[in-house]
Amino acid sequence: xxxxxxxxxxxxxxxxxxxxxxxxxxxxxxxxxxxxxxxxxxxxxxxxxxxxxxx
Length: 55
Prior knowledge:
The protein has helices spanning 2-7, 21-54. The protein has one domain (2-54). It is an all-alpha fold. It has two helices and no strands.
């Protein structure tokens, strides 16, 4: 375990405001997925609304 911290000293204590680049990317991607799902849901509702209006 000490070997791991020695080779990655900058990220040895990620709990103190330091996140590894992989963790930052995962967090960013999760936010993006949530936003895209919300946009998809809005578009589904709009498509259903306009489909009802057309008939």
